[in-house]
Design brief:
This protein has 15 helices and 12 strands. It is of the alpha/beta class and about 375 residues long. It is globular. The two termini are about 25 Å apart.
Length: about 375
């Protein structure tokens, strides 16, 4: 298969982790005789520094022509400390989502057996957790009308949703539930918000088309608590933009590190794949950023194009790296010198030589590589 992949490394640790995902995709292409081409573009703070625009036209053109987009991370602390800034890095990411109509975000949450002790939660609570979060991505409060009074003392952000926006993400979530355990949980705040009441009404109506899916409802505050108390009760979670953002970040506590959570953002014509973590600029270029979320996002990219064996091989390599403690310091208290690049090297090498894993581990542990 031939794929044209736009690569937007972004800011902070984005370039480091994205480089490992590209490395792994190149190994997959070689192993399975695919042709993947990669075209880089600027987005976020680095794009502002270079062009004055968080989403330059050249980057837009690269994305529009691509079969898929591999995204890194976005943000810079200098903007975090300046709430008055009119041009912000995050406008680049929101702009891509809106421009390409990436209306559905899919975030897997899996508790790995080898990392159960890395979570601050009890093992018996999180073992066997396997959740798929479907988050609406181009509507709601993030994209609603924003106002600030002339004196700067009154601000508002409008949360707006249409039936059409709700239906298209809900259909995908129902179908995902059909292929899994047959359970869908809608998370909203229908006791307070009119937009949530529309969500609940529309999803209830759609449920009649999916009689094999059990539909439950939780308010967002209760869902946030239940996600910690008993995450295994969830199969597929469906929710709006801001709630999905918050819940998926919270879910990182279950898996042990936000550096493990991948995502896909899709529309009818376009698809973007990215780790859910931020730019984390204070550790950029130190070689300690966890690349696994970015690498698993690359696996989701392959899944999107029906390359199931390829995606599964990446996940098998990730599983092996976790089992052998070939991970960055956020997960590793055994070998503190394993860097971002060495994790990528191991997973790349596993793809090329899956039967020589222990030899590979020894070499990488010694700071070497079996890659020629």
């Amino acid at each position: 298969m031939k794929l044209n992949i736009a690569v937007l490394p972004g800011d902070g640790i984005g370039p480091e982790v994205t480089a490992q995902a590209v490395k792994v995709l190149k190994a997959i292409a070689m192993e399975f005789n695919h042709i993947f081409t990669f075209n880089n573009g600027y987005v976020g703070a680095i794009a502002i520094d270079k062009t004055g625009n968080p989403l330059p036209q050249e980057t837009i053109s690269i994305c529009e022509k691509a079969d898929a987009i591999l995204f890194g991370a976005i943000g810079d602390t200098k903007y975090d400390m300046d709430p008055t800034a009119k041009i912000r890095p995050e406008q680049g990411l929101l702009g891509i989502r809106k421009l390409l109509d990436l209306h559905t975000n899919i975030r897997p949450v899996i508790a790995y057996d080898d990392l159960l002790n890395k979570s601050s939660l009890k093992k018996k609570q999180i073992k066997d957790t396997n959740i798929l979060i479907y988050r609406e991505l181009t509507g709601g409060i993030y994209f609603g009308e924003k106002t600030l009074s002339e004196d700067g003392n009154l601000a508002s952000d409008t949360c707006t949703y249409s039936r059409f926006e709700i239906e298209r993400v809900a259909h995908l979530a129902f179908k995902a539930a059909q292929a899994r355990k047959g359970k869908l949980t809608l998370v909203d705040k229908a006791n307070v918000l009119e937009s949530s009441r529309l969500w609940r009404k529309v999803v209830q109506e759609l449920s009649t088309k999916y009689p094999d899916v059990k539909l439950d409802f939780l308010y967002i505050d209760n869902a946030a608590m239940e996600l910690i108390i008993n995450p295994r009760q969830f199969d597929v979670i469906l929710t709006e933009n801001m709630f999905g953002d918050i819940l998926s970040e919270e879910a990182s506590v279950i898996v042990g590190s936000i550096g493990l959570l991948a995502s896909a953002s899709i529309s009818d014509k376009h698809a973007m794949f990215e780790p859910i973590h931020g730019a984390y600029t204070k550790v950029a270029n130190k070689g300690i950023a966890n690349p696994i979320a970015s690498i698993l996002s690359a696996a989701m990219l392959l899944d999107h194009f029906g390359l199931d064996a390829e995606g599964d091989l990446i996940r098998k390599a990730v599983d092996k790296s976790l089992k052998l403690h070939i991970t960055t310091p956020d997960l590793n208290n055994k070998y503190d010198h394993i860097t971002t690049g060495k994790v990528g090297d191991f997973i790349e090498d596993f793809i090329n030589n899956p039967e020589e894993t222990n030899l590979n581990f020894t070499n990488i542990h010694l700071g070497q590589s079996t890659i020629i």
